[in-house]
Specification:
This protein has five helices and four strands, in the order ββββααααα. It is an alpha+beta fold. The strands form two sheets. The chain has a two-stranded antiparallel sheet with strand order 1-4. β2 and β3 (about 35-40) form a beta hairpin. It starts with 10 loop residues before the first strand and ends in a 5-residue tail after the last helix. Mean pLDDT is about 75; it is low at about 1-50.
Length: about 140
């Protein structure tokens, strides 16, 4: 169950590389408190970028959609971008709820995994419009509303 004060604006410091999976190492410069984030494989110095959850969600969602738009199976949920959306946890819920208004069909799984809840009765399964309505009813009853 979500706590009463879980809905706080949040900003995440992320270090973005290309779409490759790489190891990121943090090295402390001698006599300098600044950290250098270096790509261990190519030794490139990465730029720190302060980004909001909205920015991160939109980028992940766009990348995920481009990779799976022609896939119609549970494999689409195993995609690394979708899993990264889920890993943002409760902080991404406002972004997902906003996206439900325009592209709901593939976000229900993320909502269920993040919240641990599923307000959609079995009789509504497969009815995207009704499932969306069920999630919005759930959302309105959350403490932040």
């Amino acid at each position: 169950m979500l706590s009463q004060n879980w809905f706080n604006p949040m900003t995440i410091l992320t270090h973005i590389t290309t779409n490759k999976s790489t190891n990121i190492s943090v090295f402390q410069q001698k006599n300098n408190t600044q950290s250098i984030f270096s790509n261990a494989l190519t030794n490139e110095v990465l730029t720190d970028r302060l980004r909001t959850i909205d920015d991160i969600f939109n980028e992940l969602y766009t990348d995920w959609y481009e990779e799976v738009k022609y896939i119609s199976s549970p494999r689409m949920y195993d995609n690394r971008h979708y899993q990264n959306i889920i890993s943002l946890g409760i902080y991404v819920l406002p972004c997902i709820m906003s996206k439900l208004k325009t592209a709901p069909e593939h976000l229900f799984e993320a909502l269920t995994q993040i919240t641990g809840e599923d307000p959609v009765p079995k009789t509504h399964w497969g009815d995207t419009e009704q499932m969306t309505e069920d999630w919005f009813t759930w959302w309105k009853n959350r403490p932040h509303a």
